[in-house]
Write a structure and sequence with these properties.
Chain A contains 16 helices and four strands. By secondary structure, chain A is mostly helical. Chain B has a domain of 109 residues: Rossmann fold (3-Layer(aba) Sandwich), CATH 3.40.50. Chain B has twelve helices and 19 strands. A seven-stranded mixed sheet of chain B has the order 7-6-8-9-10-14-15, sandwiched between helices. The chains are: A mainly alpha, B alpha/beta, C mainly alpha.
Chain lengths: 403, 431, 539
């Protein structure tokens, strides 16, 4: 069963994506560690961390794509799962500082010392164990998504309403984590990490290893997503996206399908956050900012939702642009980002990947002459979901008949 | 599978793009000294930090007009941290590793400083941080040119206690580290001074809080207990305008309940009509209204540089000026821009501040400052009603917090650490 | 010490003493009025304190204008001649004679500044001097001054004034001031002080509790119970009014939310566009107000008090026009793809923010509150600030107007027709593109109106809109998309709930609780408070 699923997943073009990232996971650290600086092909350490950060973002975008692109749930709160995973990792890293903090307290992190904590709050217990912390990285976002999704999907909160309450969720968490009384370091968050698994976070080899771990995690995420979307369940997910009510009337438990996708996606986002934190060296509540979650949506849209490679490309391209603009043309950064959103939604509804498909499709049409009807895009899916007849696409938007 | 080649090409292009990113700015000219400017030019903090970026450009231009440093021109490298703290760490790394700047001037918030701090430590570069902060930190690579709590909060409370006879205290702040720590220090200080615990009210609000009706009426109620009451405000920038508007509207006059603020300066006041606020106080180490020739010259030059007679100057700008001048002196004294040499050379150097005194870099990487208390005037300026007689040396570790009272910072031999424990006579951490 | 100070005053005044035209008695320099006023010019704060005390001690009416001017910050020193002058509008007056002074071209004026302590001293001094003034308003201020600075030495003066007083309001204030003074004076008999307590409780307004509490601190045993019962009475009264006051705070917060959200109720609620640029429309409305006021201040200073009223149509037109532009340029390509409008309008909001930041700079801009919106009034036990009051009224007016436009005009009819069944509407001859543009323009224009109101409570900065966008969406979703009444009820409910949670949970936790409650509420009613029924439901 599992091998079959694996086979089906790998049968697709996903195998190439996975292979590329596995190769990147090996080659980039090698280029960093083995080729001496100055020589052609050397990748500077800072670039390794930077690319590691992009790849962590790519996992997050892929996670969002799983729920949005494949299941039609636009979550404006995925940043929250990312940040929770990041906090779990951050808590582990804080506990590793030990007595090297400025106050030299062997147990309490610095911020707790000056906020007069006498002992560790219960939720910090056990976080000094790496594997327990990793369990939390998966468990906390997963549990939140499960509980949140269980109630939301059972009550049939859909569409815009769902988007807005996911936004409310991340906003509430943002405010909560800003509070110093929460025991998560308030606005300053968790920072000044020293060790991970006994080695220095800042060491070149650690950075290279973290990068490799991120690339491998990304490859695994692609594999998992590919397995899911190519399974029967994946087909039902797409059915839910395209016509939720119809799927329900056909006898599928739509809410459980959604819940599954949402929870898996949240776990992936949590893992992305955990990989992100040691590479950037800080986790603070601004990661919960609703604007960040919207930005993730943008990456996915720019790359092309409903594909596996799209969100990865989107996350990398947009963040490359951000890094480039904020150093060379700081004043123009927001103009460029804003224009990118508008341009993408107006002219590239299927993202960069869609553009490629278009160009490819045109070429193929010339040679093959035969053409199957293209699967509906998510944009059209939204209309279908509202009960519209797919036959009417391509004209002006329409009001929907009753179901 | 058919799409493979194109997709991988795309991906390769994306990754290659990130490699070339590093290649482009490395066209460093050897005859210049690069100075990094690390401030938010967009996002929520742009409101405060953009001016500081301009200040740095202004200072660098002035220094270049004087012939630069050691015969070399200074070249500013400006980046935008977009109020995004992980990005701040990334850009700090880029400034140091790729652009090879010799010193960085930047950050406003504590979280920004905290996020870039490990980078400066790892890559051994210099950061000059120009804003008042909560203290409880001293790092070898960072120079704190803003006020520590003993250079702002405590003198202000002393003033209110002695000159205004205040007996009841409202400590109102935004819920983040600077107000929390400052209020903790102040609370301990007030208790030590014999103020009863029920005469202290502490209140926290979220960032950008805009509905102050309840809190202001609570303050009025708290102030109606028959003892002279004052508000010590560590409310952060954006929330101040609505707060003061509500104070004005509910008729809280400075003669009845004065409000002393640590985060409200000329720049913040330029955003509104201060007529209802006349008499409320602020504690800083510099006011634009200070009448000295140095200050007059600075204001004139600044306004000429920025091209507007309406632009004000404020305390963090002076801090950047002092930090910059100290760095220039240290580089000239050391004869090199090498970080270790500058760190050794800078301690003990002094440069005139704009209020007629001298700013000295102390071994704990803080500086000496005068403390001024000003009352808000109807033109948005401050009138200095009180100032310390001597310069106050910045204290990295507060003496009023039990866990840090025995800590000292000294970055000169033989101690050479940021958290020297005077009881155990050893450094608190293994750094 | 005193001798030294007097000596210094003499020395300071010396050049003027030598002037032949000023035939002054030189033996008592401290009370020499012109010389003392002259000395103000160069005095530091401590010296000013002494001069004010000396001037007050003269008891002369002639010093009232100069002290008033000093307290109000209208007293200036002309640096070149050393003359001390009172500013009145754009003219400068000689402080004693009140005659206008012609300033030379080289005049260099600098304000003589005072601090809080001095302002208190001046108010107390002026109170004593103006208690017998001809103007009732002045007498009232004087009585209030006495109330604020009780001094047993003034009791005879107050008695005299009370005996001569004819105006009922002023009389009441004077009696309260006298009661306060007696209550605070240990020398008075307990019976007198007891009798003063109810007068203080009823007459001293908001300060009554302060005064009674401070009297309680040193009160003898016989007096204490009387004061305590008066305090208990006041506190009970305050508890009752406190709840109402909280409702008022909630309503006024709710009306701000309503203003911010009501435009969104059109663009998002009626049209289905997830308009993330809504906040920026609010921000642009605020900036329009700023520009309008700037123009008025420079060209028509007389109209300054009406600048907000003038800004209203301007803001509506500016943001409405921008809204129409956005609809024609971007939104119309995205109908039927609501989630994509989110992305496009979010991008747009970034562009608008950065544009404003590039043009006006990132710092706050200033909009002056008109006089009719400043200050507060006591309404029974409620303290109501005028600014908030007018915003509540304004929100109600905007809501009613919008309701009328939607339900009573041809355009409103067409809007509803187009959003309910576009094809049918089109078939009936309605120009749907035009109606779309108008609807979006209307929603944006109303956001602009909200911006005008928000200039009175919030920062005018490029980030203004961002602070309201999430709250606005919560209000619309909570109230039920597509229903204006839902938005009204939603906004007011959230406002009041927030204000009742705040005292118990604190501002931060209160806001978190509200968000959690909204999330839970949506689970119970996935379509909001006032869900649309019928065909339009399955969006």
């Amino acid at each position: 069963m599992l091998t079959q699923a694996l086979f089906r997943a790998l049968d697709k073009k996903a195998i190439w994506v996975i292979a590329i990232f596995l190769a990147v996971a090996v080659l980039v650290p090698m280029a960093n560690l083995l080729i001496p600086p100055g020589q052609y092909g050397h990748v500077p350490t800072y670039l390794v961390s930077l690319m590691g950060k992009y790849l962590a973002y790519a996992i997050l975008a892929l996670a969002l794509d799983l729920v949005w692109g494949y299941c039609g749930i636009l979550s404006l709160g995925h940043g929250a799962f990312f940040a929770l995973g990041g906090y779990a990792m951050g808590m582990y890293l804080m506990r590793q500082i030990g007595s090297r903090g400025v106050y030299g307290n062997p147990v309490l992190p610095d911020f707790m010392v000056f906020l007069n904590y006498s002992e560790l709050p219960w939720f910090w217990l056990g976080m000094d164990n790496f594997w327990f912390a990793m369990l939390m990285v998966v468990f906390v976002p997963g549990l939140l998504a499960f509980v949140f999704g269980f109630f939301a999907f059972r009550s049939r909160v859909t569409g815009v309403y769902l988007s807005i309450i996911t936004q409310a969720m991340t906003f509430a968490l943002l405010l909560a984590f800003f509070r110093n009384d929460m025991g998560f370091g308030g606005n300053n968050g968790l920072t000044d990490f020293k060790d991970i698994l006994g080695v220095s976070v800042q060491a070149q080899s650690t950075r290279a290893t973290l990068f490799a771990a991120t690339a491998i995690a990304l490859a695994l995420s692609v594999l998992v997503c590919s397995m899911i979307v190519n399974s029967k369940l994946g087909k039902v997910m797409i059915a839910v996206r395209d016509a939720e009510s119809r799927t329900r009337f056909l006898g599928y438990r739509v809410e459980y399908v959604k819940l599954f996708a949402f929870t898996v996606s949240a776990i992936m986002a949590g893992i992305a956050g955990a990989l992100y934190v040691p590479q950037v060296g800080i986790i603070n509540p601004s990661e919960f900012d609703p604007a960040n979650s919207i930005e993730v949506v943008i990456w996915t849209a720019v790359g092309g939702r409903g594909t596996l490679i799209g969100p990865i490309i989107g996350a990398i391209v947009v963040n490359l642009g951000k890094s480039w603009f904020t150093t060379t043309l700081p004043e123009l950064w927001l103009f460029a980002l804003g224009a990118l959103f508008v341009f993408t939604t107006l002219f590239l509804p299927k993202g960069i990947v869609g553009l490629w498909h278009q160009a490819w499709g045109r070429m193929r049409r010339k040679t093959e002459h035969a053409e199957r009807p293209a699967p509906p895009t998510p944009a059209q899916s939204a209309d279908i979901e509202r009960g519209e007849d797919p036959a009417s696409f391509g004209h002006e938007a329409q009001p929907k008949p009753a179901e | 599978m058919k799409n493979f080649s194109a997709k991988s090409a795309l991906l390769a292009a994306a990754l290659a793009g990130s490699v070339s990113l590093s290649a482009v700015p490395v066209m460093a000219q050897d005859d210049t000294i690069k100075v990094g400017i690390l401030h938010s030019l967009s996002g929520t903090m742009a409101i405060s930090e953009t001016t500081l970026k301009d200040t740095m450009l202004f200072l660098i231009e002035q220094q270049n007009a004087k012939g630069g440093v050691m015969g070399k021109m200074l070249e500013p490298v400006v980046v935008d941290i977009a109020s995004d703290w992980p990005l701040a760490a990334e850009l700090a790394r880029q400034l140091i590793e790729v652009d090879e700047v010799d010193a960085v001037f930047g950050c406003w918030t504590s979280v920004c400083r905290k996020s870039v701090l490990p980078v400066f430590e790892e890559l051994n570069s210099l950061l000059f941080y120009p804003v008042q902060y909560e203290g409880e930190e001293s790092q070898r690579n960072v120079f704190y040119t803003g006020a520590s709590p003993n250079q702002q909060a405590i003198p202000a409370v002393d003033y209110l206690m002695n000159e205004e006879g205040v007996e009841r205290w409202v400590l109102a702040g935004t819920d983040y580290v600077y107000p929390q720590t400052t209020n903790k220090i102040l609370e301990q200080y007030l208790l030590d001074k014999g103020v009863a615990a029920e005469d202290i009210m502490i209140n926290y609000t979220p960032f950008g809080h805009s509905d102050w009706q309840t809190i202001v009426s609570d303050i009025v109620a708290f102030g109606s207990e028959g003892k002279k009451t004052a508000v010590v405000s560590t409310i952060n920038g954006d929330a101040n305008v609505p707060f003061y508007r509500e104070l004005g509207n509910q008729g809280v006059a400075a003669e009845d309940i004065p409000v002393v603020a640590f985060s409200v300066g000329e720049e913040e006041l330029s955003g509104f009509d201060t007529t209802p606020l006349v008499g409320h106080l602020a504690a800083w180490n510099y006011f634009m209204s200070v009448d000295t020739p140095e200050n007059e010259q600075f204001i004139a030059d600044w306004q000429a540089f920025i091209g507007s007679e309406d632009r004000v100057t404020n305390d963090p700008m002076e801090a950047h000026l002092i930090g910059f001048n100290l760095w220039v002196k240290a580089v000239e004294a050391a004869g090199t821009t090498d970080a270790d040499a500058v760190i050794d050379a800078i301690v003990g150097l002094e440069t005139p501040n704009l209020t007629g005194g001298m700013a000295t870099m102390l071994p704990n990487h803080h500086i000496t400052k005068p403390v001024l208390i000003g009352e808000i005037q109807d033109d948005g300026q401050f009138f200095v009603v009180w100032e310390t007689e001597d310069l106050v040396p910045g204290d990295a570790w507060s003496d009023f917090l039990p866990e840090s009272a025995m800590l000292e910072a000294d970055w000169t031999a033989p101690i050479n650490c940021g958290n020297y424990n005077t009881e155990t006579e050893s450094c608190g951490s293994a750094m | 010490m005193l001798i030294l100070r007097a000596l210094r005053l003499v020395l300071l005044a010396l050049p003027f003493l030598l002037l032949p035209s000023n035939a002054i008695r030189a033996q008592d320099a401290a009370t020499d009025i012109p010389a003392a006023i002259q000395a103000m010019g160069e005095a530091n704060l401590r010296e000013l304190e002494q001069i004010v005390a000396d001037l007050a001690a003269t008891g002369s009416d002639t010093v009232v204008p100069v002290l008033t001017a000093l307290g109000d910050g209208n007293l200036y020193l002309e640096e070149t001649s050393g003359a001390v002058l009172i500013e009145r509008g754009s003219t400068y007056l000689e402080p004693l004679s009140g005659e206008a002074v012609e300033l030379g071209a080289d005049a260099d004026l600098s304000k003589i500044r005072v601090n809080n302590g001095l302002r208190r001293d001046i108010a107390a001094a002026l109170a004593g001097m103006t208690l017998m003034s001809d103007s009732p308003a002045r007498r009232l201020t004087a009585a209030q001054g006495f109330l604020a600075n009780p001094d047993p030495a003034n009791i005879p003066l107050l008695d005299e004034a009370i005996a001569a007083e004819t105006d009922a309001n002023v009389l009441k204030a004077m009696q309260a001031a006298r009661a306060v003074t007696i209550l605070g004076d240990d020398e008075q008999s307990v019976a007198d002080r007891k009798a003063a307590v109810p007068l203080v409780a009823s007459g001293a307004g908001r300060n009554a509790l302060t005064i009674l509490n401070s009297a309680l601190n040193g009160a003898p045993e016989e007096l204490a119970p009387t004061i305590q019962s008066a305090i208990a009475g006041l506190e009970q009264e305050r508890a009752i009014w406190g709840a109402l006051q909280n409702v008022w705070f909630g309503l006024s917060l709710g009306s701000v939310l309503l203003l911010a959200a009501i435009g969104l109720a059109i663009t998002f609620g009626v049209m289905g566009v997830i308009n993330m640029a809504h906040g920026e429309m609010v921000m642009l409305g605020a900036y329009t107000t700023f520009i309008v006021q700037l123009v008025i201040r420079q060209n028509f200073p007389g109209l300054l008090d009406y600048s907000l009223l003038i800004a209203l149509p301007c803001a509506f037109l500016v943001t409405g026009a921008i809204g129409v532009g956005i609809e024609r340029g971007i939104i119309r390509w995205l109908y039927g793809r609501p989630l994509e409008t989110l992305l496009a309008t979010w991008g747009l909001s970034l562009i608008l923010q950065q544009t404003v930041r590039s043009i006006f700079g990132p710092t706050n801009q200033m909009v002056i509150a008109p006089t009719w919106m400043s200050g507060s009034t006591e309404f029974f036990g409620l303290s109501i600030t005028y600014g908030r009051f007018w915003i509540v009224i304004f929100a109600i007016i905007v809501f009613l107007l919008l309701l009328m436009v939607l339900n009573r005009t041809a355009l409103g009819l067409q809007m509803r027709a187009v959003t309910q069944n576009r094809r049918m509407a089109s078939a009936m001859g309605i120009r749907t593109p035009f109606v779309d543009a108008m609807t979006f323009g209307l929603g944006s224009g109303i956001a602009g109106l909200a911006g005008v109101a928000l200039t009175q409570i919030d920062n005018i900065s490029p980030n203004l809109g961002q602070n309201y966008i999430i709250d606005s969406f919560m209000v619309v979703v909570f109230g039920g998309v597509g229903n204006l009444w839902g938005t009204l009820v939603g906004a007011l409910t959230l406002g009041v709930a927030n204000k009742f949670l705040e005292p118990y949970a604190g501002a931060v936790l209160g806001k978190i609780l509200i968000l959690v409650l909204i999330i839970l509420f949506i689970q119970r009613r996935p379509r909001g408070l006032f869900a649309l029924k019928g065909r339009a439901v399955e969006q």
